[in-house]
Each structure stands twice: as C-alpha cells, then as structure tokens.
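$ fold --in a.seq
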Amino acid sequence: MSDWLDLELSEQLAPVAAPDELWNRIHSARTPVRRTPRVFSLPVAAAATLILGGALWFMARGQQQTTGIRQLPSATRSECALCHTV
C-alpha cells in the first residue's frame, strides 16, 4: 500500500473503546438451545443406512443374475428347470 493510504487509514480507523452495553450483552449471552434432540437423529440415521444398504444389495443382486445368464449361454431349458420353475 502507499504511505498516504496507510496514514489515512491509521487516522480514520483508530482504535476506540467498545460501549459498556455491548460488553454487558456479550458477557450475559446464553448459549443457544439445540432444537433437534439427539434421540431423533439415531433412528433417522439407522433408517437411511438400511434404505441405502437395501438399494445397494438390490442393485448388486440384479447384476449377479445378469452376469450368471451371460456365463451360461448354452444352457438348455431342462438345465434351467433344475433351479427355476418354468
């Protein structure tokens, strides 16, 4: 910065004492009350985990079935009937 600007800022922005009312408000301030109880957070987190896990399991299960069909292209209808009802 230029010397002129430093001088201007030091004169215009000199330190001042804070009003007593401000200090009283700071010292008497209460901590904010937490609105969301922790008891509610645990069931929500558990439900979200189950839903996400179920979705991932469902997608993985679908990929395994598709992969299984691709690995057995020569399976006949009678071979499929061993595991699946036709």
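$ fold --in b.seq
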Amino acid sequence: MFHAVRPRAVKRLLWLDVARGLAILWVVYFHFFMTYFPPAQWGSLLDGAGNLAGIAWLEISKLGYHAVGLFIILSGWALMESTSRRATRGPIKWGAWYFARLIRLYPMYWVAHLVYLVSPFVERLEPVDSRIILSLLGLRFIDITSNFNYLNAAWWYFSLLLQLVLIFPLLFWAARRMNPWVFLLLAATLGFFARYLLLIVYPQNGAWLTGGLALCRLPEFALGVVLGMCHSRSPERTEKFFLGGAGLATGLILYPFALKLYANSYTYIFVDLATGVCCLLVVVGLAGLLCRLPAPAKVLGLIGAYSYGIFLVHQPYVIWVGLRIREQPVWMFLLVSLAVLALMSVWGIALEKATNAVVNRVSEALKRAKPASA
C-alpha cells in the first residue's frame, strides 16, 4: 500500500521500496505520455516510427496503468505483514487499527486537494463545486458518474483504499483461519463473480470495476494478503523467487497472454488480476536487479517510500505540461519526461514529508496531553 505516516520501529525492505518507486514513476510517465500522445494519434506515431523500437515504446508506455494492480497487491501484502506482526504482541484493537490507517491516509489526501486548489501550474478540467465535499471525504463512488474522476482522476484510488481498509479485518480473520490458498480461491471467486455481474448480467459504469466497488479488485488484494503471509513465514524462499530472476522471467513470459484477456467481456473479468500479477513479477524482478546498484536503489527506494504523496499530486501537473508540449518533437518529449519525473518526485516527497512531520507532532502532543486530561 502507499504509506503516509510509517511506524519507525519496522525495518523497511529496500527492494519493496524500489519496486514502489519504479511503479509510481511508470504511473507518472503513463499520464504524461497519454496527454502528449492521446490514443487517437497512436496510428500516426507508429507510422512515423516504422520500426520495432517505436512499436515497443508505444506498447510499454500505454501499459503504465497496470501499476495500479501492482499497488493493490502490495497493499494486501503490506497490511497483512504489519498486522500479523501486531497480532503476535497481543489481541488487535480494531478501533485503534482503523484510526491509525485513516490517519495515514487522509492528511496527505487533504493536502493534495489544497495543492490542487492553490497551485498555478495544474490543469483544471472541471469547476470546483459542491462535489468537492464528497471528494474530501473520499466517497467518490457516490454518484460515480460525476464524482469518480472529479478534479484529479488519480484520486479514485483513495476511495478504493478506504474500502479495502474497511474490509481488511474480515479478510485477516479468514486468511488466518483457513488454508491461505483456499482463502485466495474463495476471495478471487467472489471478486470474479462481482465483476461478472457488473460486466455481463447487469452492465454498469466501468468505474465500478476499476475501483468504485472494492469487491471487483478483491482478487488482487487477496493475493497480496496471501503473499504477505508467505513472506512472513518464509522470507528467504519468497524473495528468492521474486528477486532472483525467476519471477521476472515468469512475468515477461506470461504478460502477452495476460494482454489477450482484453479480447471480450468474459475474459475481461480476469484481466486486472492477470495484468497486475505480471506487472508485479516484472517490476519486483527489476527491483531485485537494481538493488545491486547502491546509488539507483537509494534514489528509487526514497521515491517508493513516498510514492503515496507523488501519486496524489502528480496528475494535474503532468497534464498541464503535456498539453503545452504537444507540438514538440518526440526527443523533446523524452527530455521533458525526465524533468517531469524528477520534479514530481521531489515535490511529492517534500509534501508528504512535511505532512507526516505535522501529523507526527500533533499525534505526539495528543499522547502527552492525554494522561494530564485523564
């Protein structure tokens, strides 16, 4: 999961942060690419490229949204591991657990709204109106047609996170009381059934499948829960597969088959899980390779550690820049892309660090004041 305020006592896994860093940079680049090269122009781009390199560049660039599936899987993974560690110290107080997660999520989300409202270099595609109340609450699935992508389309993911956090205690209880793979099978079946109903039986707005209804993304999240259990029980074995090259090779081999699931509505039921898994295997595999290079790993690890802030603020900026360089040649786009990725990383990190510092100070002040008031 994207993390805001993080427990200081928990040792971070560098490869996991590097994977998040790669994924968030891919998301930022994807939104920038889609603004500079809208789908209507892809045919002319291929005609102009006229070679395999151009085709490969287009295909890789337009798959950046698959990183969302990776983040959903990592959400389940991180929540399962952190909550399992907490459970070893005694019974979990779920009220306090919910409060801690909401404190991690909401402050940076509200800061992103404030930045959007006051920044001079963001693209404002919609008016600020009464819908901002539901946006601030994170309830973007209410009147989903007009609210889901309101102001900043990337914020739909926050609504999904809220729902996943809400149902996590039930999933945690179920996963620990049955065989993990049976749990995954049941959870995936429930998610696929929800997608079947919304795609085939009672066709609805596609936003419900994207994240408006968390059940539709339950297969990825449940897989993350199981992977978190596997990693907790056997970290060496799990990391050997994901980081040792086998996972990367598996992801590259399976990716073309996963993409074929876009063929029709029936196969589309399974496409988000399939592409999310392939993206996870490829990105985590690359992270394992990059961890052997100290300098790049350090930079990408920092970006990944603050991927939540980068994700929340980047899209209006990259749309603003992308619209203003559409007439520039491809080489200029590539140069500007590097600058955009760097600036969005620095800006997102700075905002999240500042937000975390304020939240931590307020939390510590409240803790000190509590005994006195009692």
